[in-house]
Amino acid sequence: MEDKKDTFTYTYSSKEQEEIQAIRKKYLPKEEDKMEQLRRLDRGAARKGTAVSITVGVLGCLLLGVGMCCSMVWMAHWFIPGIILGILGMAAIALAYPLYNHITKKEREKIAPQILKLTEELADSE
After folding, report:
1. What is the pLDDT of residues 61-96, one digit of tens each?
2. Is residue 2 included in any domain, yes or no?
């Protein structure tokens, strides 16, 4: 009789291979490629302007609300101060978007050399 060897073979499906690679990728040290670095820098340019403008806008809304309360609810002594507070609140609200544009422009000017260097490197590598 022929000598038959007991063998066991197992193959992964491509879906399982993709899942294995996805899990493995989670545990590997992260290496930031140049494209990801470029995206991170671009997102960071607007982050400070967004935070400041949202803060100014919210404070302006609160100031406007306090001014309205003063002028409508406590009219006897607080009518004129309420009007002034409301106008200051409206000014702060109106200032929020130009403030965002100004801060974002300044932040982009700061990181422009890095962005230009990365875009040149990425364009040359293709």
Report:
1. 999 999 999 898 888 888 999 999 999 999 999 999
2. no
- Return the axis-axis angle of helices 34-72 and 75-125, rounded to nearest 10°: 170
Give the Cα separation of 106 and 108 in Å (integer).
5
Residue 104: which of 56, 37, 47 has the closest Cα? 47
Domain enclosing residue 70, as ranges: 33-125
> Locate tokens 């990365």: which residue?
118
Whole-angstrom CA distances from 103 to 12, 49, 68, 106, 123 are: 53, 5, 30, 5, 29
The count of structural domains within the chain is 1
pTM: 0.66
- Render pLDDT for 29-59 as a digit per residue (tens, 0 to 9): 777 678 888 888 888 889 999 999 999 999 9
Task: Supply the pLDDT for residue 126.
Answer: 64
Q: Distances from the Cα of 121 to the Cαs of 32, 45, 110, in angstroms?
A: 15, 20, 19
